[in-house]
Write a structure and sequence with these properties.
Length: 464
């Protein structure tokens, strides 16, 4: 049963920022221009309360579904009937190749059989010391003053990935090059392109910049170098027991095969995208929210006093406030704002006929703020997760990592990393808003801020 409050208990001027939605009706050409600029602000305001919306043009049919029952059908009950849209790969394949993010069918199932065991609970705990070391490095690297926090969280998240995946810090020469190239890539590449969302005909331009493919090629060349080096270490029996080694030596239980070097490059590319870009986005927005709501920041800082001197994974069970705060950040600013599936057979949704080949758009951005479902949908309230409404919505309307068989294999990893890094940073530093610099969310590879997220950082009086 969906619950709602009759009287809101928040002040409108205290709501976290979100893009201004467009008018409900605009011309097709104007919509294309808006979409190219930012897919979030291109959408009409009614999507925050609609259960379903149909996009009609002479070239395509696309349906955004925003009702839990419909989303459950697509993602959980019948995922094989709604594979990932091939249009997704048109923009991302230059970087991701045939990685698990873009494949379907037997290829995808084989990839998940090899990848999933590396992220199981026991093996995930093995990565904790490396994650902790990245957190300590982030604390040591943080400086006081007005800083652009997305750059800091990007560096920290990349450090986590390189330490847990390849046992090297971000300061490693190749790791630093990958990070630098990726910063260029993420600013020029939207997570969805017009072809992906709208099923544009082949003759229409895809609107991707030339630099995007060039940067993707450079990133893949660097990842290939790292992967080939690890392959040689494995053959020589000198490889560290990290995620890369686990995945590269894991055999498909059905065929006995392992990933080739080329296949592993594809997977590392998506691990870096999913594990670095998305975590950086989530951490930056959560720190902004905590600057906006200092009472919650103080709660996280106080809780962080339980952090031990040395890495101990058992502490994660004590970081309850930090976990709820990070979850609320993921709700308000889901790193991946939209997902696209394709109907492989005729379907009927809400008494509407959905033809084969139609694009099915699932938008965590709109679902997480669905006005018919959430109490205080646009407000920041980490305490919601202990309420009846919050628990219901967490099960039915909260999908920052997708859901069903295609749920992100690194979801558990992210829910370790986010609360841990927040706690470690807030144990030592205070973050405050900078007057006149309110961030505007836009969708690139993930939900980022148009001109960055600027915060004033000061060291706490007592951080021993």
């Amino acid at each position: 049963m969906w619950l709602c409050r009759d009287t809101p208990r928040w002040l409108p001027e205290m709501l976290p920022p979100k893009p201004a939605a467009r008018a409900d009706k605009v011309s097709f050409l104007k919509y294309l221009r808006l979409f190219r600029q930012d897919i979030l602000s291109a959408q009409p305001a009614k999507l925050y309360r609609a259960w379903m919306a149909e996009f009609k043009t002479p070239f395509f049919r696309s349906y955004l579904i925003n009702q839990p029952e419909l989303i459950r059908t697509v993602l959980k009950d019948r995922p094989d009937d709604f594979p990932k849209s091939d249009r997704i790969s048109e923009g991302l394949r230059p970087l991701l190749g045939n990685s698990v993010f873009v494949t379907n069918g037997d290829t995808w199932k084989r990839q998940r059989r090899i990848i999933d065991p590396a992220f199981e609970g026991g093996r995930l705990r093995d990565t904790f010391p490396a994650m902790w070391a990245a957190g300590e490095a982030a604390v040591a690297r943080m400086t006081e003053g007005e800083i652009e926090i997305e750059q800091e969280t990007s560096f920290a998240a990349a450090d986590v990935i390189f330490r847990t995946l390849f046992s090297i810090p971000i300061d490693d020469e190749i790791a630093k090059k990958v990070f630098t190239e990726f910063r260029e890539y993420q600013r020029s590449q939207p997570i969805l392109n017009l072809a992906a969302m709208m099923r544009l005909p082949s003759w229409m331009p895809r609107l991707f910049r030339k630099e995007t493919k060039q940067t993707a090629h450079a990133i893949r060349a660097l990842i290939t170098e790292l992967t080939a080096r690890r392959m040689n270490e494995i053959k020589a029996g000198q490889a560290p027991d990290d995620l890369a080694t686990k995945i590269m030596t894991m055999r498909d239980p059905e065929t006995g095969n392992v990933f080739t070097t080329e296949e592993m490059v594809d997977q590392v590319a998506i691990f870096f995208l999913a594990g670095h870009e998305t975590s950086a986005s989530a951490l930056a927005w959560t720190l902004y929210l905590l600057a906006m709501y200092p009472e919650w920041q103080d709660k996280v800082a106080e809780e962080a006093r339980v952090l031990p001197k040395e890495p101990d994974v058992a502490v994660m069970s004590q970081l309850k406030v930090s976990r709820d705060v990070f979850r609320e950040g993921l709700r308000l600013y889901p790193p991946v704002p939209m997902m696209v599936r394709e109907a492989s057979c005729p379907e009927t949704f809400r008494e509407r006929s959905v033809k084969t080949g139609s694009q099915i758009v699932i938008s965590p951005w709109h679902l997480h703020r669905q006005e018919r479902l959430w109490d205080n949908p646009d407000g920041f309230d980490p305490s919601r997760w202990t309420t009846e409404n919050g628990k219901t919505c967490q099960r039915e309307a909260f999908i920052p990592f997708s859901a069903g068989t295609r749920v992100c294999p690194g979801a558990g990893f992210a829910m370790f990393e986010g609360p841990l890094l927040l706690s470690m940073l807030l144990r030592h530093y205070k973050f405050e808003l900078v007057a006149g610099k309110t961030p505007v969310p836009v969708a690139h590879l993930t939900v980022r801020a148009k001109d960055g997220i600027w915060l004033r950082v000061t060291r706490r009086d007592s951080d021993d």
